[in-house]
Every structure is written in C-alpha cells, then in structure tokens.
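step 4 of 6: structure.
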Amino acid sequence: MSRARRALLYVPGDDLHKIHKAAALDADCVCMDMEDGVALNRKDEARQTIREALQTLDFGRSERLARINPVGSGLEAQDLAAVLPAAPDGIVIPKVESAAQIVQVDRAIADYEARAGLPAGGIALLAVVESARAIVDLAQIAGAAPRLEALIFGAEDYAGDTGATRTLEGWEVFYARSAVVTHAAAFNLQAIDMVYINFKDTAGLLREAQAGAGMAFSGKQVIHPSQVEPVQQAFTPSEAEIENARRVVSAFEAHQAAGVGAFALDGKMIDAPVIKAARRVLERARAAG
Ligand code: COA
Ligand code: MG
C-alpha cells in the first residue's frame, strides 16, 4: 500500500519563504511547483530554489514532491534535470494528455536513477488529469507505468478545457471526478481530489473534502496552510468509524465461523461487501497512523 496522501499542499517553487512554511506544516505531501504557480520569467528561479530546498530543508515526515511543466512545453527536461539530483520523493506531471507522456517522464527518471546508482523505481510519479482528452483516455493513462502511484484531478483546468462554469456544488466536474476515482480503484492507484480555491471558507472546504473522502478519493490538493489540517482530518477515519468497522468485522468473523453469511447488526444487513468497506476503513486508519 502507498503512503497516506491526504493533503497535497502546493507551494510556488520560487518562493523560499513559503517553502520554509510548507515544510513545517506536517502535511502528508508538499508539492513545490514549477508550473502554473510560477511566472514564465521565474522558472529558472523556481528550479534553483526547489533544488536548494530539497538539499537543505528538513521536511519532517512530509513527502517532498516537485511539479514540472507539462510534457511538450519545452520546459520539462530542464525542470527534471534541475530537481532530480536533489532527490525528491516524487515528480508530479501536470496536464497529462496521454500514456506516452507518462512513459516519457518515467524513462527520464529511470535513466537518472541508473546513472546515479539509485534503486530503480524509488522516485514516485503522480499525474494531474485536467482536460476532456485525459478523462476520455484515463484507462491508458492509469496503466502507463508501474511508477505511477496517483491520479490528481485538476478541476479549474478541466472546466477551462471543456467550457464549463465552476460552481460551489461542482456538478459540472462530477463526471470527471467520478471517472478519476473509478480508474484509480481499477488500477490500484490513489486519487487526489480538486483544489478548493476559496481558502478563507473552511466550512465549505470541509464539506467538499468529506464528499471527496466518501467518493473514495485518498486525499485533496490544497493551496494554503489553513487548509492542511481540516483536509487531513476529513481523510482520516474518525474514532467512531474505526470502532464501528472493528465491531462489524468481528461480528462477521463470528457469524462466518458459525456458518452464517448475511446477518443483522444494529438493524442493518451485514454481508461480504459491507465487510470489505469496513476493512478499507481500518486500512485507511492504519495508513494515516
Ligand atoms: N505554502 C506555504 N505557505 C503559504 C502558502 C502555501 N501554499 N500560502 C500562503 N502561505 C503563507 C504566506 O506566505 C503567509 O506567511 P507569512 O504570514 O509568514 O507572510 C501565510 O501563509 C498566510 O498567507 P496569506 O496572507 O493568508 O495568503 P497570501 O495572500 O500570502 O497567499 C496565495 C495566497 C493563494 C497566493 C497562496 O496561498 C499561494 O501561493 N498558494 C499556492 C498557489 C499555487 O501553488 N498554485 C498552483 C497550484 S494550484
Ligand atoms: Mg492545473
């Protein structure tokens, strides 16, 4: 099982002050950005700053990720060349449109690992899917490389691509979100939900995070320090959920031993799929520590 990725915090790669802050927030993942969070004339500054941060800063237990520019932008090779020697835990590829783009980055990383004498496959890949084309081709994208550990859904870019207007309810991106979690489950990947851009609205953030957790997302992208803790809470099973899952599993085992498949607990039917869900709750609780 992959590590917990409940909150994935973006931080502009050219802003050392914010990177310092991000490193100390106890976020599951800190993603230092070279793409859309960085102006075109600051890409080099971002590369150097991320490299230095990776080499000198203590990120605690946070996963250290770097987001490169899209494959085909003409910037991605320099991005990789700058950050790989500083040993990030993983690379995030934005605006993924095809399996071939993932294969291309996978090979570049594999070449680097071989040259540097690192274990093959140690550096993770996470792919942001944020266009109509990517959603239509998810099965190819999700199966592109064993190094790929997570699909990330980018709602703002997706709406921009399809022409949809973003709303608080989010029905305009619901099919795409649903496709992302379904493909992630089918390919045994994690799925990381969209950003809640109104970072002053914690109640709204919590609602959206809980809905995402209920859809089986593993976590959510965040853009502000205040979003880290509420999101990590929302993606951690509560004490009551854990206790209930334990009761269900132990009652199931007792009934199985007595030769009974389906039974009632607290007025609800319990059978194999319910047990599977309960075991998943316990698994998520373990991954979150
Ligand atoms: N990571 C780390 N620290 C951050 C942060 C982030 N993503 N966003 C804000 N902070 C820091 C600020 O620097 C500030 O620190 P200070 O008090 O020491 O000066 C503090 O948290 C409070 O920030 P605040 O004043 O509320 O926000 P802001 O106006 O400085 O920044 C944004 C707002 C949206 C520009 C900022 O949150 C941000 O850059 N987010 C990430 C954007 C990004 O990467 N986008 C691309 C991926 S979608
Ligand atoms: Mg995007």
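step 5 of 6: annotate
 - The mean pLDDT is 97.
 - Residues 36, 94, 128, 130, 154, 157 surround magnesium ion (ligand 2) (CB under 6 Å).
step 6 of 6: archive
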